[in-house]
Design goal:
This is DNA starvation/stationary phase protection protein. It comes from Streptomyces citrinus. It contains 6 helices and 2 strands. It is an all-alpha fold. The chain has a single domain, classed as Ferritin (Up-down Bundle). A two-stranded parallel ribbon has the order 1-2. α1 packs antiparallel against α2, α2 packs antiparallel against α5 and α4 runs antiparallel to α5. It is elongated, with a radius of gyration of 18 Å.
Length: 185
């Protein structure tokens, strides 16, 4: 049975067409957050090197918060009359990004790659905030709060990558693999 993104009803003050647009936007955020949760856990399990414990312990609270964000996004879509799809197959079919490519590696290499991941997530979140703002302040507010947390997580990551001169050791990297490589040089 195919899932429909157009609800039969929605919250007061929105049309079903507006709700559909919001639900579709939230669905992509759900895919992003589910993917990010798994990527963060992968990093947590595969960091090595002298910064292991710092990064290992820094990542777990991010994992927990990102899982909670996914739940909030799915519940907002439900409140709008939608159906949230959280299956791995749906995520892989819908995503527009490549799978995380760094395996067992130095903690700083993982942080270099994770910085690129966070940049992509944050850029997409900003677009979603821009799209939802004119339609629904409640959905916009949810996404803004999550954006603030994601930006803080990226700041935590970047603190490990910043040089004494204030530049990122990964500056100018176009891919997570390149950022991982630059981070450890």
């Amino acid at each position: 049975m195919p899932l429909q993104s157009t609800p039969k009803y929605t919250v007061p003050g929105l049309t079903v067409e507006q709700a559909r647009e919001l639900i579709d936007t939230l669905q992509m955020r759900l895919h992003t957050l589910n993917d990010l949760h798994l990527t963060l856990k992968h990093i947590h399990w595969n960091v090595v090197g002298p910064h292991f414990i710092a990064v290992h312990e820094m990542i777990d609270p991010q994992v927990d918060k990102v899982r909670a964000m996914a739940d909030d996004v799915a519940e907002r879509a439900a409140a709008l009359g939608g159906v949230s799809v959280g299956t791995p197959g749906a995520l892989v079919a819908a995503r527009t990004w490549q799978d995380y490519s760094v395996g067992r590696a130095d903690a700083i290499a993982h942080l270099g790659a994770l910085d690129v991941v966070y940049t992509g997530v944050i850029e997409d979140y900003r677009k979603a905030v821009e799209l939802t703002g004119p339609i629904d302040p409640a959905t916009e507010d949810l996404l803004i709060g999550q954006l603030r947390d994601l930006e803080q997580f990226q700041w935590f990551v970047r603190a490990h990558l910043e040089t004494a001169g204030g530049a990122l050791s990964t500056g100018g990297a176009d891919s997570e693999a390149e950022a991982a490589h630059r981070a450890v040089q």
